[in-house]
């Protein structure tokens, strides 16, 4: 078993995922994004605080680090794995390695070591991971996300809906890939947990709607 590949992958993917692009973009403008808006370092709050162009850039960068983490896992596996394993065993180990990379990238974003292990909610980074791991289930989740946002005007509702749709689609479309299914379910549950403050605001009728400007007091 290529344990070295797994260990190096986990560390490398975590560090890549932990790059807090939203925090850095705000810091470049002299703003601590953790103290404004929702206090989150992700793309939604970056868009609200810094404007759409920067928010979109943060979204793409957060997704890119998830996508690149999967490829990093594959590269590390190919360089550290022993050549003596059989073809099927090697394929399964490589698959496990890239899934591990995806998990660690999302954990790096959500619990970044650079900000005292407080980070974002992992939606964009998860999307980047699944663009590489399972693009068709991701497409279904993206459609669900868009529909939910269009119907409710809440980004948080779209994110939560997508977090439910993604593991459902993975289990339906890749029923024999148990590890991916379990991991996706866990990441979906984590995404919903990270939205607990949004859920509380939704229940209180205090959540911000997408595209609605705050009224001046």
Which stretches of 5+ consecutive residues score pLDDT under 50?
none
List the helices and strands in order: HHHHHHHHHH
* Rg over alpha carbons: 18 Å
Give the terminus-to-terminus CA distance. Answer: 62 Å
The count of β-strands is 0
> Per DSSP, what share of the residues sits in E-state strands of 2 or more residues?
under 5%
Oligomeric state of this protein: single chain
Helix content: over 70%
How many structural domains does the protein architecture include?
A: 2
Gross morphology: globular
Main sheet properties: none
If you average the pLDDT, what whole number results? 92
Structural class: mainly alpha
* Number of helices, where a helix is a run of at least 4 consecutive DSSP H or I residues: 10
Describe the structure.
The chain has 217 residues and is an all-alpha fold. It folds into 2 domains: 1-119, no CATH class; 134-217. The protein is built from 10 helices and no strands. The chain has helices at residues 3-17, 21-27, 43-50, 52-80, 87-110, 123-133, 135-152, 155-173, 178-194, 196-204. Helix 1 runs antiparallel to helix 4 (52-80) and helix 3 packs antiparallel against helix 4. The longest helix is centred in the first third of the chain and has 29 residues, at 52-80. It is globular and about 55 Å long.
């Amino acid at each position: 078993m290529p344990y070295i590949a797994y260990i190096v992958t986990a560390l490398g993917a975590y560090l890549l995922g932990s790059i807090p692009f939203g925090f850095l973009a705000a810091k470049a403008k002299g703003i601590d994004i953790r103290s404004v808006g929702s206090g989150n370092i992700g793309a939604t709050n970056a868009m609200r605080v810094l404007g759409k162009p920067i928010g979109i850039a943060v979204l793409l960068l957060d997704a890119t680090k998830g996508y690149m983490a999967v490829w990093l896992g594959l590269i590390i596996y190919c360089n550290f794995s022993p050549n003596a394993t059989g073809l099927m065993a090697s394929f399964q180990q490589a698959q496990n390695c890239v899934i591990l990379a995806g998990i660690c990238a999302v954990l790096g974003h959500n619990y970044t070591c650079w900000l005292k292990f407080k980070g974002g909610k992992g939606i964009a980074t998860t999307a980047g991971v699944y663009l590489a791991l399972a693009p068709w289930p991701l497409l279904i989740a993206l459609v669900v996300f868009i529909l939910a946002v269009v119907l409710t005007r809440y980004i948080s509702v779209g994110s939560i809906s997508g977090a439910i749709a993604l593991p459902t689609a993975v289990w339906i479309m890749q029923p024999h890939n148990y590890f991916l299914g379990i991991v996706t379910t866990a990441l979906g549950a984590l995404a919903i947990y990270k939205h607990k403050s949004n859920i509380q605001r939704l229940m209180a009728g205090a959540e911000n709607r997408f595209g609605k400007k705050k009224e001046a007091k």
